[in-house]
Amino acid sequence: MGAHATPLPEGLLAIVRRDCPTCQLLTPVFQQLTRNGPPLTVYSQDDASFPGGVVGVVDDTELAQSYRLGVEIVPTLVRVHDGRETGRAVGWHRGEWEAVSGVGGLGPGLPDQRPGCGSRTDEPGMAVRLAVRFGDVRFAARQVQIPAAADPVEACYERGWTDGLPVVPPTRERVLAMLGGTTRSARDIVGAIPPDYAECTVEKVAINAVLAGCKPEYLPVVLAAVEAALVPDFGLHGVLATTNFIGPVVLVNGPIGRAIGMNARGNALGQGNRANATIGRALQLVVRNVGGGRPGEIDRAVLGHPGKYTFCFAEDEEGSDWESFAVERGFPPNASTVTLFVGDGASPIVDEISRTPESLTRSYAACLRAAHHPKKVVDVAALLIVTPEHARVFREAGWSKARLKTELHTLLQIPVSELLRGVGGIEAGVLARDVPDPNGSLPKFRNGNLNIVRAGGSAGKFSAYVSGLGSITKNPVTREITP
Amino acid sequence: MSDVQIVLDPTSELSPVARPKLARPASLEGLTLGLLDISKRRGDVFLDRLDELLQARGLKVRRYRKPKFSIVAPVELRQQIRDECQVVIEGLAD
User: Fold this and answer.
1) What is the pTM of this model?
2) Domains of chain A
3) Partner residue facing A143 (CB), from B6, B10, B19
């Protein structure tokens, strides 16, 4: 602060630190320049009593001047004339120092050259700290002050910013670092988030990504997920407001999932992976904080499900012979995409016996038949997650994903006679008058409502499906992730 | 800079930073009123008189006491008051 307001001192500026051996070696050079050269101002990054024997060393432990000068290496020697930099030498090189300073015969007895050390401005986390403090950073978001001694995590709770779990306090430094994860401008509008339809900027998404615990490199995925949720046909307002269980289930395809270390294998739907955990959470926090969608208010879920904290995983493309979900949807294999499926919890399919695709497919169909209710048809959707041991059965028999889908579709044509109200002693069911042909059948899933992906650990003859809504929403929605 | 921490607002900023106070009830009819003695000298005199006046109006009053005025009320006491009362009156000064 204030560093930009004051003009640079005329003459020579040297930026040093005591714990740099090269800087220590140059102590006689600084003394020599003090005696013979143009006016010298030495800025010490760590100890204003260094270098000894030099008057007027300026304490730069706050790094204001080092930041202003863009110093990357110490020592750095800068020549200033009429308030402007006219020359610079980095590290120790006698010829360069003599040229910059205009003083000959510097450091007799010293080696001709010696590399310098890293500037403290490059220490971990320092770049954003200095940018916030001394730089030109402007945030559009309101700055909320918390007393110095108060626990910022508790302050976030008190303001209603959390999903019930602790959040990472969105300091300016963390948000600035987060924004470094995207090439997009912080001011870009991502869309209007229901139910309040409040305008959401990249900056607001970044703040919520910080809350969720994301790393900056996850931000492009979070941004794409928010954009997918805002595709009108996705019906985010309805997804949020329904009494049903559902919430967005986030599937990541393409190289970015591997680059940011997402889990597509053992426990892919479970806990323990930062990217999986925080990307899904960030999306939900955007809905909560920017959209105002909170349980008990607009969110009328009768039970909800634990995946509404976060539900995000990557498809195991490397471990699969099938084309990925994204490729199936028309994206090139090297594209990174995010897909939102409107779903509830994962239901297991436990079949440890089947060794033929025909048998396994029948197991899948029997389990999928029960999604929501054995008599619920047409408006149900499901994401079938096939794991490696089951996938091997299909691979060895040469079944493609399309073949599995076709066979499932055939098996999941349910005779109307099994679906009618009262059948099986169950009052629930379809009304005869709503059915075109009482002797015909109805599909459990409409075209496009049953999707198949690959994930999971190598051991265990289990797969799973996530059931969801096939109405009120276009399910699923896929968007390409851009930097 | 060092006397406060700054965080950026993650919300749509449709509501003010300062949390609004709960709306006052339109009427005390049917509500339970808590009188919280914070253990400050002569606070009891003030609260005893309030107690008399409120009870004379047929209102239900419960009494509570904080062990020490300079600390926040213990969690159990806060939970008890929240469970038992809809309105709380405390005497703050001596």
Assistant:
1) 0.89
2) 11-123 (3.40.30.10), 154-480 (no CATH)
3) B6
